[in-house]
Amino acid sequence: MADREPNLPETNLSEPGLGESQPLHIPEGINYECTGCGRCCSGWAVPMTAADYERISAVDWGSLHKKLNGADLFRELKDHEKEGSPYTHAIKPDEEGLCPFLVNNLCFIHSSFESKTKPSICQLFPYNFNEAPSGFYSTVSFVSVGAVLNAGKPLTEQRDYLNQKFAEFKKMYPDHHPNWSRIELCKEVPLTWERYLEIEAELLRILQNDSESLEMRLAHMSLFVVGEYLKGRGSDIPEAQLKIELGPKHQLKPIEHVLLKELYRLYFPEKTLNRAESNFSASKFMQSSMAAKMGIAPQLKLRAGDKSFNLADVKAVTLPDLPELKDIFYRFIYQRIFGKLYFGAGFGQLSLMVGLHHLITAYSLWVLQCKAAALGRGVFIVAPEDIVNTGRMLEKRLGDMTFDGYAAGALEMELQSHGRVLRFLSMCL
């Protein structure tokens, strides 16, 4: 297979108020259209700004639909939920975990009034706009089934609509300015934004070479970034490491089971996580790491429903080598890199190297969870629905995650190794 056409960003400066200082970059090859499935409106409490709450709670919803008559629809956010966010309230999910305003798989707020009546976050969903020194980068969230399936028209053909959403985003979040003042190639190795863009261009070039498996492309991306770090220190990658091979020879080390277990707990939780459980616990990880060094290291187990599976059983499940399935994984990685949503202000203030390696780790766990989902259904081949469901969960959890300084520091120590990345990718084969 030939290389993909280079997915260079579209830059649109036609919207009034946009200029060279803040262009809107639109990714190539990414489509979106709502599929009307209603699944985006489940599994979470929709947050509302003060203006959202005032507007929506003023309506007598019980008089408009019997389902909403007497329903307890809203709650005020707790102080820790409000901290650092523009939100003050949330819509309470019903007993089935669905938004109470979901009627016949459609938004009753929207159908009763107009889009502008909905909560701000729903008006923008699934579009993301991430501000970086070189402009704003538009992506679509994989929480949306339509985004996972790449349904609809290319974003590059929706420029007017995206400009409208972009303007709404800036109006809703005028003080949203991520701090990109200090980015690093790896810990304590500063990186200019101009040099970062050059590195990103090479990462995307490697990613788009679909003559190799996605696992091999990700391995080469890791090798390239590690090579950039070594060049800065006046050395090169040892010749023996230039040839990449993935497979059974790359067996997980005990400490890697500990790291994967903690990340798996966060990204594919078996239950709703409370505040104390919902972020990476550096102290718990360090304690488990010490136990691993003494030979006490529980093995990574994967779950589906009430069933648990060991790694060997999960790896035996087949992931069909179909272009439409492989493309889902590719677009997830591509959008995270294009949108700068994997390092620095885009994700936990991680360094570029560790941010990339964390993204690869998340991908590896996603592949394993797809296979576990198949086993949970009693079959040994992954179905498209397994990829969609697990991908949506991963995207949501990545969006919910925050790393404090201790957690980021732990990841900076544990995810610098290229060899570790090869072992994680080998789990996918």
Give an account of the 3D structure:
It holds the Pfam family CxxCxxCC. The chain is an alpha+beta fold. The chain folds into two domains: 177 residues, no CATH class; 207 residues, no CATH class. It has 17 helices and 15 strands. The strands form six sheets. A four-stranded mixed beta sheet has the order 1-2-10-9, with helices on both faces. It has a three-stranded antiparallel beta sheet with strand order 4-6-5, covered by helices on one side. Strands 3-11 form a two-stranded antiparallel sheet. A hairpin with a 2-residue loop joins β14 and β15. α7 runs antiparallel to α13. The two termini are 20 Å apart. The N terminus is likely disordered.
Count all strands and give the number: 15
Number of domains: 2
The largest sheet is: 4 strands, mixed
Average pLDDT level: 91
**What fraction of residues sit in β-strands?**
5-15%
What is the distance, rounded to the nearest whole angstrom, between the alpha carbons of the first and last residues?
A: 20 Å
Summarize the structure.
This is YkgJ family cysteine cluster protein. This protein is α+β, with helices and mostly antiparallel strands.
